[in-house]
């Protein structure tokens, strides 16, 4: 009942909240482009974008325009896309599995995607954004199938799938380490290990052209299944009683989460806790209805990831931390809090 006032919040207020969130996303992206070793005014950023998009003739420093367009803006857009996609995956998995701790990182999907991507990079199966994404997708699907089998073999239940996810994560992390140790040279090993912690250092516009459409498309598909996700939160029997094709929708949404996770992992590496923390925060603000929860989750995830990227670049002078380190610093305490509340008797 504590969400009753939020759940029945007027749509006008919700639209206002979403407008504010969208404006906040635009603001943090502008800040991400402006903040760095070479500070750039927000007005300069706007002029650089206007020159490229609308063909305006603002006179700008070539250095500033190059930093904005070729480095920082693409980085911010990929961060926003990855944050939105990973947060959506968490919201979907929490509904499908009826477990507040479900998210790609905890369930081992991110670890499997990392193994698939590293196999492509190190073992010579080809290299490129699409090839990496394909390898990561295969790894993500394999990880989720393994976790599902382990959970089913141990008796099922929401707690069991989390324990199975921990085991699956350890297995695929071990496989990744084995591939790196036995097949990579020293330079490759350093690059892969930094990438595995979550890195936006190497993203460019081709990555934006993959990440943004996948994130937007994934969001639209999730919205199509918003009512079905509402039904899943009451259990599969309740969903089936409402005429929902449980098996088909579950397979489709699990495949979607694997695709979203694999795409983002192939671009930015394995980043944890976004899919765990953000859906809970959004649910607290807009309530449990997925018609409102999914947009709030996507926008909040995008904002969180862009802010985490800013923090990763400024928290240590003259050094850029892996973004996964920053998300873990925020996410680990939140994970402990959610775990405590989930285990506490009603």
Automatic annotation (TrEMBL):
Stored CDD domains: TM_ABC_iron-siderophores_like
MF terms (GO), sorted A to Z: transmembrane transporter activity
UniProt entry tagged with the keyword Transport: yes
Membrane-crossing segments per the record: 12-35, 76-97, 104-126, 132-152, 161-180, 208-226, 238-260, 266-286, 293-315, 321-340
Keywords assigned by UniProt, alphabetized: Cell membrane, Membrane, Transmembrane, Transmembrane helix, Transport
Main location: membrane
GO CC annotations on file: plasma membrane
Membrane topology, record value: Multi-pass membrane protein
InterPro entries on file: ABC_BtuC-like, ABC_transptr_permease_BtuC
Keyword Transmembrane: yes
Subcellular localization: Cell membrane
Signal peptide residue numbers: none
Family: Belongs to the binding-protein-dependent transport system permease family. FecCD subfamily.
PANTHER family xrefs: ABC TRANSPORTER PERMEASE PROTEIN MJ0876-RELATED (PTHR30472:SF25), FERRIC ENTEROBACTIN TRANSPORT SYSTEM PERMEASE PROTEIN (PTHR30472)
The protein's name in its UniProt record: Iron complex transport system permease protein
Organism: Rhizobium metallidurans
């Amino acid at each position: 009942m504590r969400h009753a006032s939020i759940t029945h919040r007027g749509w006008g207020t919700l639209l206002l909240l979403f407008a504010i969130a969208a404006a906040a996303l635009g603001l943090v992206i502008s800040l991400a482009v402006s903040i760095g070793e070479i500070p750039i005014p927000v007005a300069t950023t706007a002029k650089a974008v206007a020159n490229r998009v609308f063909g305006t003739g603002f006179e700008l420093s070539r250095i500033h325009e190059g930093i904005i367009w070729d480095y920082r803006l693409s980085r911010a857009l990929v961060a926003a896309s990855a944050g939105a996609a990973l947060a959506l995956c968490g919201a979907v998995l929490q509904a499908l599995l009826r477990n507040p701790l479900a998210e790609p990182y905890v369930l081992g999907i991110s670890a499997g995607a990392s193994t698939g991507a590293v196999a492509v990079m190190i073992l010579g199966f080809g290299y490129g954004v699409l090839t990496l994404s394909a390898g990561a997708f295969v790894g993500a699907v394999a990880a989720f199938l393994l976790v599902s089998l382990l959970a089913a073999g141990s008796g099922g239940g929401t707690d069991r799938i989390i324990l199975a996810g921990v085991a699956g994560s350890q297995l695929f992390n071990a496989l990744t380490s084995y591939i790196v140790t036995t097949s990579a040279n020293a330079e490759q090993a350093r690059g892969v290990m930094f990438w595995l912690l979550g890195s936006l250092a190497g993203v460019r516009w081709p990555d934006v052209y993959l990440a943004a459409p996948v994130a937007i498309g994934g969001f639209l598909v999730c919205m199509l299944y918003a009512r079905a996700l509402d039904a899943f939160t009451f259990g599969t029997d309740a969903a089936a009683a409402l005429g929902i094709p449980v098996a088909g929708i579950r397979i489709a949404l699990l495949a979607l989460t694997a695709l979203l996770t694999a795409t983002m992992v192939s671009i930015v590496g394995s980043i944890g806790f976004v899919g765990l923390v953000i859906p809970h925060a959004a649910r607290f603000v807009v309530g449990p209805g997925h018609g409102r929860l999914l947009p709030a989750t996507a926008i909040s995830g995008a904002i969180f990831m862009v802010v985490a990227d800013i923090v990763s670049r400024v928290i240590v002078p003259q050094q850029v931390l892996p973004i996964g380190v920053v998300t873990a610093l925020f996410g680990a305490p939140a994970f402990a809090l959610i775990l405590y509340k989930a285990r506490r008797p009603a």
